[in-house]
Write a structure and sequence with these properties.
The complex is a heterotrimer.
Chain A: E1 2-11, E2 14-24, E3 29-33, H1 40-47, E4 55-60, E5 63-64, H2 72-77, E6 79-82, H3 94-104, H4 110-123, H5 139-151, E7 157-161, H6 169-184, E8 188-192, H7 196-202, E9 205-210, E10 213-218, H8 220-225, H9 230-240
Parallel strand pairs in A: 3-8, 3-9, 6-7, 7-8
Antiparallel strand pairs in A: 1-2, 1-4, 4-5, 9-10
Helix pairs in contact in A: 3-4, 3-5, 4-5, 5-6
Chain B: H1 7-10, H2 13-49, H3 53-68, H4 71-81, H5 88-96, H6 99-125, H7 129-137, H8 142-172, H9 184-195, H10 198-226
Chain C: H1 2-14, H2 24-51, H3 55-70, H4 73-88, H5 94-120, H6 123-131, H7 136-151, H8 153-166, H9 178-189, H10 193-238, H11 241-244
Helix pairs in contact in C: 1-2, 1-9, 2-3, 2-5, 2-8, 2-9, 3-5, 4-5, 5-7, 5-8, 6-7, 8-10, 9-10
Classes of the chains: A alpha/beta, B mainly alpha, C mainly alpha.
Chain lengths: ~240, ~230, ~240
């Protein structure tokens, strides 16, 4: 579904991504973890071109992300992205946040968009908050609306950039359970996260990154029990403490 | 002085017509300057948002000049100074077609454009980059992102200073009297010269200015309240 | 253009001094400073009245501020020109009229800035001062004003710079300040209005822009101190051996 082929990125002199090659299969749930500054957020942001790359190739569902003939907006609508800071639109209600892109980018009618939005809000457990504004919602509720908003465009793949890092601990669970249900429904997902419990429960593959490179790719059981790479071992032992 | 208020003579027929013309000129001058200022201010704010360093410095210089030179000096430079740069024919044409009004509009419009561009710019900057990213990630084009996500938020943020500067623009039209535009202040002085009822005519002029200014501020407060993003 | 400037520089910058009254830029600056010298204390008083719980103070002060904010400066100057001699009883110079106008005008605008500063302070500040037993006046003087004024310092300074620009209104009542002087030079030269008024604009620009940059420097110093200053105060108390013993 998503293919990284020798992807490299530089910020001036500093190389943020070093020759990254990996693949996310259809229906697979991949968790990307690693210490801060390892480039995991940068990597996930290159998929929908929020970050540019200087070398290598990225392919999503067969189409190269950087080809000249790509309709960028249509492409992005097929890649759902959930931000660490939620980034809900404060001047729109939760319902309108979800309806905006389907109506204005996909051309759906207001009635269809609204129907779909209410269904999505119900799916994330927030049907009663349709008319609330983001500032009136808790962090966990905002992030769930953000997930519903990304799902509204019916993307085949969802990207999550540290979706629970900005949340108070007691709200992490409600967001993770939405993500877990998505995974169980067969969504192709790529998640940058520190939530190792989530990784153990639903992920099919764990990528460990450090200093811009993927150092280890393993299934969750193997990775959490006995990681091979020394830096992965150090990372996991730090996490446990 | 206060014991002999005589409003009758200033409200005699020719004076009332005169006063109404003054009000009309003020209104017209305000409108033309405002349109010029908003149009130019929006263009400059957009140019500045594009990130080209040369344009950035150009616009910054424009804003710095217009914010640090008094309105009156700018008016004089435009009205007395600028025509001499034009060819003879153009000068003649302008002189017979209300040069005072034209240059007053240009001077006030260009000056307030600097202030408006700063208001719009700060409104745009106040919207976080995350909003841009979220809108684009959903598949909304740049134009649609601006139209449905960024500008609605910037507009609400820029509204209060924008209204304030509109009131300032309105008050600045009174300076056009110094170059002979027959707007309200000029008319008030004229009527005073003819009737010698200084207090009464100044009072009428002041009340008119106050009424418009306070109305503008009131409309602004109402619009701000009506479009405010609901808080917690 | 440079020769026009150098030929008229003395008149433009100093007026006829020392062979006559001060004029030009010097007079402009004197007008601004004089105006602010009275306007600043008056604005503090006006701001206090605006936030006062006593309606006999808050209502008139609010009305005054709204009138000054809603009426063009030109009209205010004409009002002063007419009213001041009536109130005092004898004729006054245009200079005095202008100063009086500037004082009232700037006091109104400054009082709005000070009021915003007072109202933006957390209520906890006043509450803790009063519960310590401090009087209203003492609270204002030692707790509220120092913080409010410090917070609003950049805005206050910006308004002061505006005063320099506002002195140009003296032109309409023939005060010999910078704009009027430039017009006189123009009247004598007649054929070079563009150069004369460009010089006028550039002189104002040089003065006001320099002052604006200084204000920006102050603003940066304030935000830097905000980031580190409070912490260093705390540290000094912690390291105080007398307190620790």
């Amino acid at each position: 579904m998503i293919q990284f082929s020798k992807v490299s990125k530089w910020y001036g002199e500093y190389q943020a991504l070093v020759d990254v090659s990996a693949e996310v299969g259809r229906g697979e749930v991949v968790v990307v973890c690693g210490p801060s500054g390892s480039g995991k957020s940068t990597l996930i942001r290159t998929v929908n071109r929020l970050e540019a790359i200087q070398a290598g190739e990225i392919t999503v569902d067969g189409s190269s992300v950087h080809q000249a003939t790509l309709n960028l907006n249509r492409f992005r609508s097929r890649v759902g992205f959930v931000f660490q800071q939620f980034n809900l639109f404060p001047h729109l209600s939760a319902l309108d946040n979800i309806c905006l892109a389907p109506m204005k980018a996909a051309g759906k009618s207001r009635r269809d968009a609204k129907q779909q939005a209410l269904a999505l809000l119900d799916r994330v457990g927030l049907a009663s908050k349709a008319n609330s504004y983001p500032q009136q919602l808790s962090g966990g509720q905002q992030q769930r609306v953000a997930i519903a908003r990304a799902l509204a465009m019916e993307p085949p793949v969802m990207l999550f950039d540290e979706p629970t890092s900005a949340l108070d601990p007691e709200m992490v669970g409600e967001v993770l359970s939405v993500m877990k249900s998505l995974a169980r429904d067969g969504m192709t997902m790529m998640c940058v996260t520190h939530e190792m419990g989530f990784a153990r429960e639903v992920s099919d593959s764990v990528w460990f990154m450090d200093r811009g490179a993927i150092l280890e790719v393993a299934d969750p059981q193997t990775f959490f029990r006995s990681p091979e790479h020394p830096r992965a071992q150090a990372f996991l032992s730090d996490l446990r403490h | 002085m206060l014991l002999h208020l005589d409003f009758a003579s200033i409200f005699a027929a020719p004076n009332v017509k005169h006063l109404l013309w003054g009000v009309q000129y003020t209104a017209l001058l305000t409108l033309t300057s405002w349109v010029l200022a908003v149009a130019l201010g929006t263009v400059m704010a957009t140019l500045r948002a594009m990130g080209n360093p040369f344009i950035e410095r150009l616009v910054a210089g424009y804003v710095a000049y217009h914010q640090n030179v008094p309105m009156l000096a700018q008016l004089f430079l435009w009205y007395f100074g600028f025509p001499t740069l034009l060819p003879e024919g153009a000068q003649g044409w302008i002189n017979t077609h209300g040069s005072e009004f034209i240059f007053a509009s240009i001077a006030i419009g260009l000056c307030m454009a600097a202030y408006y561009s700063e208001d719009i710019r700060s409104g745009l900057r106040a919207v976080s980059a995350g909003q841009h990213e979220a809108a684009r990630s959903l598949g909304l084009s740049f134009t649609k992102s601006m139209r449905y996500v960024i500008l609605p938020q910037s507009f609400r943020i820029a509204m209060p200073p924008f209204i304030n500067h509109t009131v300032v623009l309105f008050k600045n039209t009174s300076l056009a009297m110094a170059i002979g535009v027959a707007e309200l202040t000029y008319t008030v002085r004229d009527i005073e010269n003819q009737t010698f009822r200084t207090f009464e005519i100044y009072l009428v002029g002041t009340v008119i200015y106050l009424a418009v200014s306070l109305s503008l501020m009131g409309v602004g407060a109402a619009v701000t309240r009506h479009t405010r993003i609901p808080a917690k | 253009m440079l020769d026009i400037f150098t030929y008229n520089a003395h008149f433009l910058l100093l007026g006829q001094y020392p062979n006559g009254p001060i004029g030009g830029l010097a007079l402009t600056l004197i007008l601004a400073l004089l105006g602010l010298a009275f306007a600043v204390p008056l604005s503090l008083l006006l701001a206090l009245c605006r936030v006062s719980p006593y309606r006999v103070l808050s209502v008139p002060s609010t009305v005054l501020v709204y009138i000054v904010r809603g009426v063009p400066l030109v009209m205010l100057v004409f009002w002063s020109y007419f009213l001041v001699p009536e109130l005092i009883g004898h004729l006054v110079s245009a200079f005095t009229t202008l100063v009086v106008t500037l004082v009232i005008y700037q006091a109104a605008y400054l009082s709005e800035i000070v009021r915003a500063g007072i109202e933006s302070l957390p209520k906890g500040q006043t509450e803790s001062a009063r519960s310590l037993g401090m009087s209203y006046g003492s609270t204002m003087r030692h707790v509220v004003f120092p913080q409010a004024l410090y917070n609003m310092l950049p805005s206050i300074l910006s308004q002061c710079i505006s005063t320099v620009k506002d002195t140009s209104i003296g032109y309409v009542i023939s005060v010999q300040e910078l704009t009027f002087s430039a017009q006189q030079i123009n009247a004598s030269l007649l054929t070079k209005p563009f150069q004369v008024f460009l010089i006028l604009a550039l002189v104002y620009f040089a003065v006001c822009y320099t002052l604006t940059r200084c204000v920006q420097g102050v603003e940066q110093r304030i935000s830097r101190r905000r980031a580190t200053g409070k912490m260093s105060n705390v540290r000094s108390i912690i390291n105080d051996s007398v307190l620790q013993s």
